[in-house]
Amino acid sequence: MIYFIITVLLTAADQITKHLAVSYLTDIGSIPLIQNVFHLTYVENRGIAFGLFSGGRIVFIAVSVILLAALTIIMYKTPKIQRTVWQKGGTALIFAGAIGNIADRIRLGYVIDFFDFRLINFPVFNVADIAVCVGAAMILIHFLLSGSDENVKEV
Asked: Which residues are catalytic?
């Protein structure tokens, strides 16, 4: 149940922050929080992963849904005793991020991005993107640790 709550809260946080980005950044474009390092910048991302492959809205939605289905199957094929906090938490984060970005694609036709790290010239991203990346890292940790019973803790 805690993982469902995490998914709901993160999805809500993603949608609220995107609403705030639209409300405050659309007209001005960008607000420097730390000049030339970190800005809040309004971007309409019509591609996937940092703007790549722009223009495939229906394909992106379908692929996201298929990947979420695959992740669900993997989770439920894993015996309960072997499900770790890493796997369950990672799955919750990936679901939250995917739902947030799918909602944008369905509703708007693009994903709203606004975190802009200029110091390293990183693509603009959002809360959902952070959730997916952290969730994927958690699942990777789960698989790396799952070979050793003493490194895996059930929660």
From this structure: 113, 129
